[in-house]
Design goal:
single chain; about 20% helix; two-stranded antiparallel sheet; 2 helices; alpha/beta
Length: about 130
């Protein structure tokens, strides 16, 4: 994490994507927690807790109710960044092959959505 740009100080973790048929929600949350702890202990950034990160939107039209999860536009993400004075937004993805776990973690600049840091990890599963 030494190469995170110095202007990225306040970061919120917005998502950990994984195939839910392979990775349970508790396991994904545990991995996300480990990433947050590592990032916070590195001293480069402050991890910000943001319950607004997982918004659920309810919309109704002509008798049909639609539930949607997550941000619908990048403007919504920017508004949250402004509200919480975030410099960056962190997200991760993980997937498995028959013998390997692959993970990518990246940080977006909260103002312009540019990827400012990205790191890939892989581990052979015994």
């Amino acid at each position: 994490m030494a190469d995170i740009p110095p202007e990225i100080r306040r970061v919120a973790f917005i998502s950990m994507k994984a195939d839910r048929s392979v990775v349970s929600v508790p396991l994904a949350k545990q991995i996300q927690g480990k990433i947050e702890a590592k990032a916070a202990s590195a001293g480069k950034i402050t991890m910000v807790y943001a319950p607004e990160v997982k918004p659920i939107k309810v919309s109704a039209a002509e008798g049909v109710i639609t539930l949607s999860s997550g941000f619908q536009t990048s403007d919504e993400i920017k508004q949250l960044g402004d509200k919480l004075r975030l410099d960056g937004l962190m997200e991760g993805e993980m997937y498995f092959t028959s013998d390997t776990l692959y993970m990518n973690v990246r940080i977006f600049d909260a103002r312009n959505m540019a990827i400012v840091w990205s790191h890939e990890l892989s581990s052979v599963i015994p």
